Amino acid sequence: MIIKVNDDYQIRSDSACWIVQKKGSIRKKTKKRDWQNIGYYADFPAAIQGLSELRVRIISDEAIVSEIKAAIWAITEEAKKAILVFTDG
Question: Would you state the pLDDT for residue 8?
Fold first, then answer.
């Protein structure tokens, strides 16, 4: 199963875990998008939390408080939408 969080991140599951992936480059021969694995989690809520924490950590050190708050709000909304997709709710 693949759950798209936004244009840059997705969460993929296999038989053993949930894998957070970041968009990579497009292969020249196949024209298909590569996805880089950036985190492995035992369950879906942990994957959402891990991705959200990662995205908060990479907000620029030079960002002002209002920019940080807006980014955290956007990340939270994307996480909520991904959870709804997962739970069909």
Answer: 93
